Amino acid sequence: MAASLDHKPIATTTVFTALVVLVMGLTFMPYGVRMLCYDGSGTIRGWLYVVCADAIGLVVLLSSVVAGVKTYA
């Protein structure tokens, strides 16, 4: 909204990417990490799973930062 108030054009792909990142980060990530990284007893399967989950979370955060910079810069 701040960009539209400043009369800055926002690309449709930027808005779509930001929405996809928000939906994935809020809906799939918590349940996906729990399903993939933990076994039936609730213990972590290994450090490789922790590193992969952190890397995926980092990609989600970085893509939301890029979308914010493109929108408000």
Please report the total strand number as a whole number. Answer: 0
Order of helices and strands: HHH
Q: Report the mean per-residue pLDDT as an integer.
A: 80
Total DSSP helices: 3
Cα distance spanning the termini: 13 Å
Structural Rg: 16 Å
Give the helix proportion (percent range).
over 70%
Percent range for β-strand residues: under 5%
Major sheet attributes: none
Structural class: mainly alpha
- Poorly predicted regions are none
Indicate the overall shape. elongated
Explain the overall architecture.
The chain has three helices and no strands. α2 packs antiparallel against α3 (47-72). With 73 residues, the chain is an all-alpha fold. The chain starts with a helix and ends with a helix. The radius of gyration is 16 Å and the shape is elongated.
Kindly summarize this structure in a few lines.
The protein is mostly helical and 73 residues long. It is built from three helices and no strands.
Give a quick set of tags describing it:
73 residues; 0% strand; mainly alpha
Architecture blueprint of SSEs:
Elements (H helix, E strand, L loop, with lengths): L1 H4 L6 H26 L9 H26 L1
